[in-house]
Design brief:
308 residues, alpha/beta, Rossmann fold, N-(1-d-carboxylethyl)-l-norvaline Dehydrogenase, domain 2, 2 domains, five-stranded mixed sheet, 13 helices, 7 strands, globular, binds NADPH dihydro-nicotinamide-adenine-dinucleotide phosphate, binds 1,3-dihydroxyacetonephosphate
């Protein structure tokens, strides 16, 4: 929607359900996803995947665990010269792969980018000021994407560190859950600040182990998104964590909580790589029902002292 609002001609939203397209043509809105928000009149919507063949930029905006399935289903329709950009914040649960690796494996020979950073969909769609980052292996491609998608209220910074940008987005969700747990359990705002700072150190180590730039997570994707989702109740990850902290242990979730997937994937991958990620490990153990909040906190606080 923001790409259409920014004056790009021919922006098409490919929906899965005919009912979404019908509702949009009647109301000019998609109340399922963005209740009450008027979408740009220049936006077109369809369920016909053949529209992808003419697209120069294809944004993959479905949840992380659906990206492979969607790529497989849509691969034949996407042109060979298209830039395909994942907007999801996660890692593939079964394999532990980064989403750029998932898309590269499915969409041979297309350029795969990443869009991430602090921005609630409803804020962006309402035209509130937002700054995010778009990464491509080639910085010139990232600059092209930033120029094509940015507008007066939506500012994209180009980056060539796809690894740092996407892992920042995936891991901040885990830390937002941790901050929610701290809030729900009434552990205080000092504890939240400590989690943000130590969580950022975990992110850096994980990014470095994947060959990315550890400094990337101090930018919009990473610190920026963590500040947003660790403090705003608009965040589904934060709200999920608050409920966990109030109950003391895990139970079901009604909406998409990407960090609940990312916690166990990142914990498993970190174990395999020998990367120290105590907060992520604790969140994964609480969600998987292997420990409770009180025990996890005791373990975090009794870890051997190390230099910051
Ligand atoms: N919401 C937000 O504020 C932000 C979200 N993100 C990230 O974007 C990603 C999507 O989040 P969000 O939009 O909130 O999630 P939603 O659960 O709202 O899903 C988004 C869309 O994905 C579609 N979808 C689900 N499964 C599939 C599939 N297998 N194939 C094709 N399409 C599918 C859904 O279609 P249908 O409607 O038919 O179910 C829906 O239209 C997440 O990784 C999230 O972290 C990033 C920044 C901000
Ligand atoms: O990533 C987001 C904003 O940057 C959205 O966060 P939630 O998925 O926690 O709602």
């Amino acid at each position: 929607a923001v790409a259409a609002a920014n004056g790009n001609p021919g922006v098409i939203l490919l929906a899965r359900r005919e009912s979404v397209v019908e509702a949009f043509s009647e109301t000019g809105r998609n109340d399922d996803a963005l209740p009450g928000i008027e979408l740009p009149q220049t936006l077109k919507m369809t369920v016909d995947p053949t529209v992808l063949s003419g697209a120069a930029i294809v944004l993959f905006a479905m949840p992380s665990q659906a990206q492979q399935e969607a790529a497989r289903a849509l691969s034949a329709f996407i042109g060979k010269d298209a830039d395909v950009v994942t907007c999801a914040k996660g890692m593939e649960r079964a394999s532990g792969r980064m989403l750029t690796d998932v898309l590269e494996a499915e969409l041979h020979h297309r350029r795969i980018g990443v869009l991430s950073g602090p921005g609630f969909a409803s804020d962006i769609a309402r035209g509130l000021p937002t700054a995010m980052v778009v990464a491509a292996a080639d910085i010139d491609r990232a600059s092209f994407l930033a120029g094509a998608l940015s507008g007066k209220t939506f500012r994209l910074y180009p980056s060539s560190d796809r690894t740092g940008v996407q892992l920042g987005g995936a891991l901040k969700n885990v830390l937002a859950i941790a901050c929610g747990i701290v809030e729900g359990a009434g552990l205080g705002e000092s504890a939240r600040a400590a989690l943000i700072a130590r969580g950022l150190a975990e992110m850096s180590r994980f990014v470095l182990a994947h060959g990315g730039d550890p400094d990337t997570v101090r930018g919009l994707s990473g610190l920026g998104d963590l500040v947003l989702t660790a403090t705003s109740h608009q965040s589904r990850n934060l709200r999920f964590g608050v409920a966990l902290g109030q109950r003391g242990s895990a139970s079901g979730r009604a909406e998409l909580v990407e960090g609940a997937f990312a916690a166990s994937v990142a914990a498993r991958v970190a174990d395999g790589l020998g990367v120290d990620m105590p907060i992520t490990q604790a969140v994964a153990a609480i969600i998987d029902g292997k420990t409770d909040v009180t025990t996890a906190l005791d373990q975090l606080m009794s870890r051997p002292m190390t230099r910051e």
